[in-house]
Specification:
The chain has 427 residues and is mainly alpha-helical. The chain folds into 2 domains: 345 residues, Rhodopsin 7-helix transmembrane proteins (Rhopdopsin 7-helix transmembrane proteins, Up-down Bundle), CATH 1.20.1070.10; 59 residues, no CATH class. It has a two-stranded antiparallel ribbon. A hairpin with a 5-residue loop joins β1 and β2. The radius of gyration is 27 Å and the shape is elongated. 34% of the residues are buried. GO terms for molecular function: G protein-coupled peptide receptor activity. This is G-protein coupled receptors family 1 profile domain-containing protein. It is found in: Membrane.
């Protein structure tokens, strides 16, 4: 079970000369042409979204453990999309200029195709697994998470993933080599062939590829599947409990829950958990078909790039590669839809808000802090622990204060603003 390269599997859009019994050459040619155009659009849009995500996630107000992983994920996804664009362009060039195109591919593919594109894809797998594990710890072991999921340990884990993944896949750099051959017209042309080193050590490469396939493809899928199922069950149970409490609790008890901060904190963490579950679920759904396709090539020897069902193999492999491309391109959309803080910061940076959107939260928090500080100073006594977290719901007496025109612009919204800024784990 070799660790195969998705770009190698797709081989866009070069076709075999023969026709298998399931898919004709004409149908495959049409499919590959459409997929190539669609993939270029997805790669460009996804890369643009990932760059925007990086700008937002690197903002000083977004620096926490979870966002460090999401930023690293944006980097690996963008690199993967870049490789995809390069090889789609090369294969189009091969169609228009076969000799020069094949020569270019023979020089580029052994490094960019057989090694670096696989490395970026597997780094994405490892980072998504790290994200899922870290969230699982935060949900089920919140006290231990403070020691296990520190910023320093998160950064070290990310660096180890990048370096270790790049190193363990180095043998695949020597799998192919450029060879000069003579065609029927006695013209010299350059093609890509399996290297002599690979041919002498086929068994080693086969076993080594199988081990890497298990570690970097199947193990992350299994871990993410198990942890996501557990977290989804907990999230669903929590939603049911909150719905039950909302019917049973009176208005005063709900306000008290909001004042002590527990309701807000739980709700915010709940939203973060749902967003991260969505990210890992999209990854699972997009990567699983490629893993199954990899297994199928070893079950049926005719289902290979040179086998009896080569056209079918090319079609399905291209589809699974397209799903991996989708996975690397959609995270920005998930963040925009599911993270309120991400949306507000996006508006502030890219929509000429000049801080207006984010100040709604930050100034509200300052008013809230002033309100509670004054109240505690007048009382002279220590407040009960349940009232230590301050919320926007307690700043009504300050609404008629002397504020600037910019602040009065959103006074009516102030009670509805999120007080999550007090929480360091906010996404």
């Amino acid at each position: 079970m070799d660790e195969s390269n998705p770009v190698d599997q797709a081989k866009l859009p070069v076709l075999q000369q023969d026709v298998d019994i399931y898919l004709s050459k004409k149908t495959l040619a049409l499919f590959m042409s459409v997929m190539a155009v669609v993939m270029v659009v997805v790669c460009l849009v996804g890369s643009f979204g990932n760059i925007i995500s990086l700008i937002i996630l690197f903002n000083q107000r977004m620096r926490n453990q979870t966002n460090y992983i999401l930023a690293a994920l944006c980097i690996s996804d963008t690199l993967f999309l870049g490789h995809s664009i390069i090889f789609i362009a090369i294969n189009f060039y091969r169609q228009s200029n076969p000799l020069d195109g094949e020569a270019l591919r023979s020089y580029v593919y052994p490094i960019l195709g057989a090694w670096s594109s696989v490395v970026t894809a597997r780094i994405t797998s490892s980072l998504t697994t790290l994200l899922c594990v870290q969230r699982f710890i935060a949900v089920f072991y919140p006290m231990r998470a403070k020691q296990l999921c520190t910023k320093r340990k998160t950064i070290i884990s990310i660096v180890i993933i990048f370096i270790l993944t790049a190193l363990v896949f180095i043998p695949f750099c020597f799998k192919y080599e450029t060879t000069q051959v003579m065609d029927n017209s006695n013209n010299t042309k350059q093609i890509m062939n399996k290297s002599a080193l690979y041919m002498r050590n086929i068994k080693f490469f086969s076993v080594y590829g199988t081990v890497l396939n298990i570690l970097f493809r199947f193990s992350p899928l299994a871990i993410i599947f198990i942890l996501n199922i557990i977290m989804i069950i907990v999230v669903r149970r929590t939603c049911q409990q909150r719905r039950s409490m909302s019917f049973n609790d009176s208005e005063s008890s709900l306000r008290l829950t909001s004042r002590n901060g527990k309701h807000c904190s739980h709700t915010d963490q709940h939203h973060i958990t749902i967003m991260l579950i969505t990210v890992s679920t999209v990854f699972f759904c997009c990567i699983l078909p490629g893993a199954i396709n990899s297994i199928a090539t070893h079950i049926n020897r005719s289902y290979t790039p040179l086998g009896k069902y080569k056209n079918l193999y090319t079609c399905i492999s291209t589809s699974t590669f397209f799903l991996e491309t989708i996975n690397s391109a959609v995270n920005f959309i998930i963040y925009m839809f599911m993270s309120r803080k991400f949306r507000l910061l996006y508006k502030e940076i890219f929509c000429c808000g000049h801080g207006k959107y984010y100040r709604k939260i930050s100034i509200s928090s300052l008013k809230e802090k002033f309100r509670w500080t004054s109240k505690r100073g007048k009382s002279g006594g220590k407040q009960h622990d349940s009232f230590e977290r301050k919320t926007v719901s307690d700043i009504n007496p300050l609404k008629n204060g002397n504020y600037s025109a910019g602040e009065r612009e959103w006074q009516s919204d102030i009670n509805g603003e999120c007080w999550e800024l007090q929480n360091k784990h906010l996404f």
